[in-house]
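Need residues for this backbone.
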């Protein structure tokens, strides 16, 4: 992540600062531009701009401009420079945007980020974001969707309006992920595509399905965010959908009906996943492949074998998306303990079906304790949460909205890591050497090239050890089934 070159300086602008002329909003309407009318404090100082009043400043992470200490009085040199640039000062809402000359080597004010003409769409971003450079805002907002991040809820509330605000030329180079969704018209595909379209991390969204993609793409394309959206329909359009992609997410396939196991989907979904991943191997072999289609315990080995067949296999770039298990575990633990689910993190390892789903409650942060009977019930609920939704939907499918959320969380983490953000960790079902199962889910450190390293299983309780031992035979069987399927494919 590039360091920002803009900082906010407080107390620079006097009431004599020039007002700007009216400006045009992204919708084409002319909005009156507010001039500086900052009231003075009891000490005669002007309050800091934007969120720099005490309550709000505390809620912006310090490294993103939050916290009072960054607002500082001007040195003489800075004051001189501020006089020079006064005509370029930008005032929006309660915010004052000013260049931040470096005391060591003052830069010509004209080159300052904050002085560049701002596109109208940026100017209407919420006041509390005005003093942040686009790269920071993007990563801050992306993080705000990550429930593990200890960021204030206010960031999440800013999400949609701020996302809509950051667009165009000043958006950082790094926020340019090209993402394809295969199965985009389905119950998961549509809300997942909506979340991706709403993200500043994504610049191009290509949507593929065997039905309805022109409509889904037309609908999404009207949303006022910068990602371009295009629909692709039918196998002949699949190559164009995939070319140039950085990330491919695959929720294509049939979902469960009441009474079905995930493995019951194998016959239909194995062929769908094998066909789609073969196209990925041909047309975007370098892309990160995120498989949502069930049974994940088999569709990941299928994907790996298909990529091997095409001679482009890279185990660091093939992910079985199990994030929904983590999301559910966090939610259920939070419910039982009266915690904010956004601040709970339960690693879930193993696989993605019934007893192969192994929540490590002993590693939960914050630390939580349950009596054994409550623990057993909790783990059972996490393992059968998908079935809970299938039953509640009574034949109308399986989890779609929570899965779309979980899929988006995983993609955003992946893209963050690809952009160079450090310390990004997600669990995922991958090629693994942690157990004698060739594929296994553990917490992973993600990086620019996919999986940087597996963080392993860590210290676990005897109960969790037993769960792993019980899961391994089923996991091995599902993996073998997937591998055999590809070997026997004509
Ligand atoms: N990994 C998880 O945690 C998780 C959670 C929930 C559901 N799932 C799985 O996700 C899959 C999709 O679920 P859903 O509820 O969105 O199903 P859905 O039936 O609503 O949507 C599936 C979509 O895939 C499309 N499709 C079918 N064959 C295709 C092909 N050959 N190429 C491209 N698209 C194709 C369909 O047209 C449809 O639009 C299911 O396999 C389900 O079991 C996984």
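Answer:
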């Amino acid at each position: 992540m590039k360091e920002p070159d803009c900082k906010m300086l407080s107390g620079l602008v006097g009431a004599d600062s020039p007002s700007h002329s009216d400006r045009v909003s992204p919708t084409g309407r002319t909005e009156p531009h507010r001039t500086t009318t900052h009231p003075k404090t009891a000490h005669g100082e002007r309050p800091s701009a934007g969120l720099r009043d005490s309550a709000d400043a505390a809620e912006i992470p310090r490294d993103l401009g939050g916290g009072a200490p960054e607002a500082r009085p001007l040195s003489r040199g800075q004051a001189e420079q501020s006089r020079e640039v006064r005509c370029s000062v930008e005032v929006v809402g309660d915010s004052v945007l000013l260049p931040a000359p470096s005391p060591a080597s003052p830069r010509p004010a004209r080159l300052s980020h904050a002085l560049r003409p701002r596109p109208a769409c940026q100017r209407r971003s919420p006041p509390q974001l005005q003093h942040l450079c686009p790269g920071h805002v993007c990563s801050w907002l992306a993080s705000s969707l990550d429930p593990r991040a200890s960021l204030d809820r206010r960031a999440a509330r800013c999400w949609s309006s701020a996302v809509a605000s950051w667009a165009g030329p000043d958006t950082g180079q790094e926020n340019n992920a090209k993402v394809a969704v295969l199965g985009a018209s389905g119950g998961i595909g549509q809300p997942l595509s909506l979340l991706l379209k709403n993200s500043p991390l994504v610049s191009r969204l290509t949507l593929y399905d065997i039905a309805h993609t022109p409509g889904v793409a037309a609908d999404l394309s009207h949303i006022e965010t910068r990602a371009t959206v295009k629909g692709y329909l039918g196998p002949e359009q699949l190559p164009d959908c995939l070319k140039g992609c950085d990330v491919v997410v695959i929720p294509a396939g049939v979902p469960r009906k009441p009474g079905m196991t995930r493995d019951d989907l194998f016959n239909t979904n194995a062929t769908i996943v094998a066909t789609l991943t073969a196209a990925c191997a041909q047309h975007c072999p370098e892309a990160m492949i995120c498989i949502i289609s069930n049974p994940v315990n088999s569709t990941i080995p299928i994907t790996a074998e298909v990529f091997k067949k095409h001679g482009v296999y890279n185990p660091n770039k093939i992910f079985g998306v199990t994030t929904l298990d983590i999301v559910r575990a966090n939610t259920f633990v939070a419910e039982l303990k009266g915690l904010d689910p956004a601040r709970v993190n339960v690693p879930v390892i193993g696989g993605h079906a019934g007893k192969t789903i192994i929540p490590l409650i002993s590693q939960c942060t914050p630390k939580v304790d349950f009596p054994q009977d409550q623990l057993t019930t909790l783990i059972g609920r996490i393992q059968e949460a998908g079935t809970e939704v299938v039953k509640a939907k009574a034949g109308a499918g399986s989890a779609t909205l929570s899965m779309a959320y979980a899929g988006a969380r995983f993609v955003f983490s992946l893209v963050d890591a690809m952009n160079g953000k450090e310390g990004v960790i997600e669990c995922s079902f991958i090629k693994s050497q942690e157990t004698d199962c060739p594929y296994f889910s553990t917490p992973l450190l993600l990086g620019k090239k996919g999986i940087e390293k597996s963080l392993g299983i860590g210290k676990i309780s005897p109960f969790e050890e037993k769960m792993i031992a019980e899961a391994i035979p089923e996991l091995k069987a599902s993996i073998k089934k997937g591998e055999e399927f590809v070997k026997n494919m004509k």
